[in-house]
């Protein structure tokens, strides 16, 4: 079976053919004199910038962070300065990542490195300080040279070498930075092995400078892995450099485009996936050093030719110097019983640390190929960090989330020769090959009726050939240091810590909330009353429980890390990891939104890191980036790509934009740019194909059935983000946003109409002639609440606001009230607790205290099978031990991820909107 064909879609009409003239749009949103607005007069207050975790910059090169600003506070050309708490200037580079419609700054990104000291900094308006050593970028022929003032990297625009060389001063520290892929054509499922491997090398198709300094430079490199005529597994690599730094960071993304179809004669099973550098070895073997991090601050500390522990003692000062990594005295000064026999001491040139599970690593070494490996230790969770080099310089290297995204591996080869070869394996070649085959044979579910029956029993929406990994992606983060000499122990500990947890600067909850970004749907944590404190305690409980379950249940692995499970099986005391749609959550009911709002209001680093790993996962693994389903995500299931429901509600930019604006992460930015045209996916795949009541419906570019809930919210999120980022398709995105808002508002029943027929050429919905009531409990729980709150503040369309407020007012209304307004009620709806935030939003907009009271009533009362009612939820865990479970731990069998996400969002938004109306 050949790979799924690339998407071949009818492209939307030229921008000038859109329903709303762009001359009008541009005139309406032309930049205004933002500095003259009232907000600007009070916006000169400094923003406090602190480290997310204790410890400061450490050994990292720098930190990039985002700051939001109130509408009208700063014009687009405003400059900013960064200072330490005691007033010392810190060089900073600033760029806009989003604008308000009036042209003022909404989000800015700031890069800093040199001069960051202490815990606290202040960001103010002003002229930024220039770095003492600016990072510079030069392009010549097929090379890009980046110079930080300390190290210089030469980057290739073609060929197999991503990084030709890394030098420090006149010393070459590393060279021939390249990607390596090992492919296996089939799997050895029996008790004998005969599978052959083949090696592919990364081939660069192009490189582009995205930032040129003076504080931060970014180079993007794209290509595929090639052997002979075949090129596959596309990669996108970004290299980050900071002024004055001796290190650089790599963000490495692969997109899977192989074939592992069951029964296929030659499948594409990844046996190993790595990043490789060569490190020149200039020093004597006894002055060459190996450092490999274990768990915590643990290190293997050795020399290629060790002179400790010998039968004869070279001298205490000699031994101490080698352990410290310092240059040894002239051997002529040693005990000559050692010096005369140096040639008889083995050189250990090869080292391997493999982390094949989340709980264990092994470390071994050998003298050279063809000779046996010697066990050198082991432990639980390695840092994924090492060093090879000598007293004249060497390379430190590290892979983030090393054990969390097992199987991973670090290799050092040939350290006794002229050059050592370092490979950071993102997928260890010692592990079982990467197996992405679908997990069952379909069980006869060949027709839609049979598939719907399967949905009734395992909650899995199966369809033949839909459970494919073709087009999913994964991003890894690596860091490299070009050291002038072997680092001392303290420096190595700091470098390893910077790999595990890259230092992150951040603005605090008060400053973020003051800007009223993200719809103003959150406010800083408030425990000022017992009732508020009780809700805060429960929010903490839910986060801590899910975080603990990741560890207890070992939700780790290359493709899995960052996701959580959907539903619990109380009988087995186990999450339903093997039961259809109850397994991996894949963003169902918006846990991503809950986590990011929880971070914004609290500033908690553990919530940030949890949300960060989820964003990395759900943006990459749960969505397609190639093929006919590019732009769509996959519903929850046993495998992240298994379910046949491929929809906007999972791929939505609404779940990613928080991380992007807080960190300016370019990879997430790429993903959101790619979603602007995802309205075209409705030509390829009808999300309601199995249950659509109209048997004659066929996707038509001028009449695409697109719902106003989960469908439109995903599209609107992408359009909103592209517009405010001023991306390459910002004009089209704004036009689509406005035209769909106008034509949703013009429907007889607005949002309650449920869906409409969308025209790809004009970006408008056809206006229905007859009113219809079509309301789903799912419509508003995949970001619709959040995106409506934002666009209503940005775009003045009273009819749209009215339509949305009607939906908010009547979802939780009585059936009699619904019938009086719409002629019929909405039927039996669930997720009432989560929808209480719609009542709260409408209460504020309409200044209606009765709606505020209803919000808290619906939030706290019992609804059958829905949420966490105030009076009947235990808010406790119980202890588990064998033989009930595999490993001892705790359970809260009443917790479900759906309920957690919606409880969390409702609690956070209700407190922000109508917290003053919360009954004691």
From TrEMBL:
Q: Which domain of life is it from?
A: Bacteria
Q: Does the keyword Signal apply?
A: yes
Record domain PcRGLX/YetA-like N-terminal RIFT barrel: where: 46-115
Please state every residue range assigned to the domain named PcRGLX/YetA-like central beta-sandwich. Answer: 135-496
Chain ranges passing through the membrane: none
What keywords appear on the UniProt entry? Signal
UniProt domain PcRGLX/YetA-like C-terminal alpha/alpha toroid: residue ranges: 502-918
Q: Which InterPro entries match?
A: PcRGLX/YetA-like (IPR045793), PcRGLX/YetA_2nd (IPR048330), PcRGLX/YetA_3rd (IPR048331), PcRGLX_1st (IPR048329), TAT_signal (IPR006311)
Cleavable signal peptide: 1-27
Give the protein name, as stated in the record.
Tat pathway signal sequence domain protein
